[in-house]
Write a structure and sequence with these properties.
With 129 residues, the chain is an alpha+beta fold. It has helices at residues 2-18, 68-72, 121-128; strands spanning 35-37, 43-45, 57-60, 90-94, 97-107, 110-118. A 4-stranded antiparallel β-sheet has the order 3-4-5-6, with no helix packed on it. The protein has a two-stranded antiparallel ribbon with strand order 1-2. A hairpin with a 2-residue loop joins strand 5 (97-107) and strand 6 (110-118).
Length: 129
């Protein structure tokens, strides 16, 4: 419990330093506030309170490392070789965390991605730790 209070104090101090908000408006939320009792008496997590939080989703075709000299020489028509093989699934990232793999599709003249493999929730949580 003291580590939670220490973290709350650190956040309050950081907010005071940033000047973005008044520290009196900071509310501590206990994790129990996100718990609901299930039909069998066990507590389950309620995520309704975070459903409207925006996140950034991105699709990564591939990556490449080049030096600045070569970067400055790029122009229209230049080709940058990626570390992926053609036809390999794309990575789907949410806030920089890999959540799935997919393939490119075209729907109504717009690009999209069909998810082919979704990383399990347990695996995603394990990677966050």
């Amino acid at each position: 419990m003291s580590s939670e209070q220490d973290m709350a104090d650190e956040w309050a101090a950081a907010l005071d330093e940033s000047g973005d908000t008044d520290s009196s408006t900071v509310n501590n939320v206990e994790l129990d506030d996100f718990q609901e009792s299930g039909s069998d008496g066990e507590s389950t997590v309620s995520i309704d309170s975070i459903m409207d939080i925006p996140v950034t989703i991105s699709m990564e075709v591939g990556r490449s490392r080049i030096n600045i000299r070569n970067l400055l020489q790029l122009n229209q028509g230049s080709v940058v070789e990626l570390e992926r093989v053609a036809g390999e699934p794309l990575d789907v990232l949410v806030n920089g965390t890999l959540i799935a793999h997919g393939e490119v599709v075209v729907v109504n003249d717009k690009f999209g991605i069909r998810l082919t493999d979704v990383i399990s929730q347990n695996e995603r949580i394990r990677k966050l730790k």
